[in-house]
Amino acid sequence: MNSNGLDMIDNTTARRDEPKVLLRTENLTKSFMTDSGQLTVLKDVNLAIAARERIAVVGESGSGKTTLMHILGTLDRPTSGHCYFESTDLFSLKTDQLDHFRNQQLGFVFQFHQLLPEFTALENVMMPALIAGHNRRQAAEMAQTLLSQTGLQQRLTHKPGQLSGGEQQRVAIARALVLKPRILIADEPTGNLDSNTSDGIYSLLDRVYLEYDLTMIMVTHNDELAARMDRTLRICDGCVTG
Ligand SMILES: Nc1ncnc2c1ncn2[C@@H]1O[C@H](COP(=O)(O)OP(=O)(O)OP(=O)(O)O)[C@@H](O)[C@H]1O
Ligand SMILES: [Mg+2]
């Protein structure tokens, strides 16, 4: 077991002996307490996502897509139920173990990029690498490689406010991939982009899916895109089908 107590999610070990199901939920329920009482957004959700599967997540606005992505991405906790990565019960991990898991295994692309406005594109992409303990030089090299792969080698020193919407989202994708995660979760990554720019982002995601050997879970309103994925999960009345 390594110093974090997390040998089961060590990249090398896990990739060698890949199980069919990578991510699994068991009776996942999420409720919010609101002024008008308890609002249950997800009810007893049971999902099994295989390694390298590409999943589209669809549903009406307010149906719980972001809520589910945040829980699968360990950014939020369920009210009850479990979420397993291979055999690890994620929400039973200690906070530092869960932080380590998220940093090493997951890339998250938010609907509205969530880049840090005061940092350059390069620094934003370096951030997960610095958190993982790489020194500045290594982190800068890793970030530069990713930004080149996403076509932004000429924009390294631009701050988010000096980038177009599509460029900001490409920086966010580069940031999500800089540590070569096994799972990429994207919550409507083209939410506020025009259709041409969106197509460019989708092509980029197609490319990185293959290049980085990813398991990809993506919220989308785009039926054409959903049809190109391996499977579509539909959220309705708190239930997930598909
Ligand atoms: N922190 C919270 N407190 C109370 N209610 C919440 C909270 N977060 C989300 N909700 C409610 O949960 C429901 C699901 O929200 P969620 O953001 O998951 O929807 P969504 O499917 O992602 O919608 P959209 O397509 O508009 O992004 C909504 O009705 C929302 O109002
Ligand atoms: Mg949402």
Beta-strand percentage range: 25-35%
Overall tally of domains: 1
CATH topology: Rossmann fold
**Secondary structure tally: strands:** 10
Fourth-tier CATH superfamily name? P-loop containing nucleotide triphosphate hydrolases
The structure class reads alpha/beta
What is the average per-residue confidence, as pLDDT, rounded to a whole number? 91
* Helix fraction bin: 25-40%
**CATH-derived architecture:** 3-Layer(aba) Sandwich
Distinct small molecules: adenosine-5'-triphosphate, magnesium ion
Rg over C-alpha atoms, rounded to the nearest angstrom? 18 Å
Question: What do you see in this structure?
Answer:
This protein has one domain: 3-Layer(aba) Sandwich (Rossmann fold), CATH 3.40.50.300. The chain has helices spanning 11-16, 65-72, 95-105, 121-131, 136-149, 165-177, 195-211, 223-228; strands at residues 21-34, 37-50, 54-58, 80-85, 88-89, 106-109, 183-187, 215-219, 231-236, 239-241. Residues 1-5 have low confidence and may be disordered. The chain has eight helices and ten strands. Magnesium ion (MG) is lined by residues 65-66, 187.
Briefly say what this structure is.
The chain is an alpha/beta fold.
Write the layout of secondary structure elements.
Elements: H1 11-16, E1 21-34, E2 37-50, E3 54-58, H2 65-72, E4 80-85, E5 88-89, H3 95-105, E6 106-109, H4 121-131, H5 136-149, H6 165-177, E7 183-187, H7 195-211, E8 215-219, H8 223-228, E9 231-236, E10 239-241
Parallel strand pairs: 3-8, 3-9, 6-7, 7-8
Antiparallel strand pairs: 1-2, 1-4, 4-5, 9-10
The structure holds adenosine-5'-triphosphate and magnesium ion.
Magnesium ion binds next to helix 2.
